[in-house]
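step: validate -> pass
step: tokenize input -> pass
step: predict -> running
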Amino acid sequence: MLNNIGLPGLLLIAVVVLVLFGRGKIAGLMGEVGKGITAFKRGVKDSTEEIENASDEGEAARDVTPERDRENA
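step: predict -> pass
step: emit ->
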């Protein structure tokens, strides 16, 4: 069904969305999407740095296997 949508179909959809919601709402929505993407990228970067700093400080991985299961592992 969606394989046959070409450029004219996409333009028609864009025009209908623009008429229904207006330019201001669409611009505001895109701004919020941009802020969300930026926050996501910042979170990924911060967590990556946190993991790298933890490994640089020599924190070793802890074995959290229960005592009764360590023999079988």
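step: describe -> The radius of gyration is 25 Å.
step: cleanup -> pass
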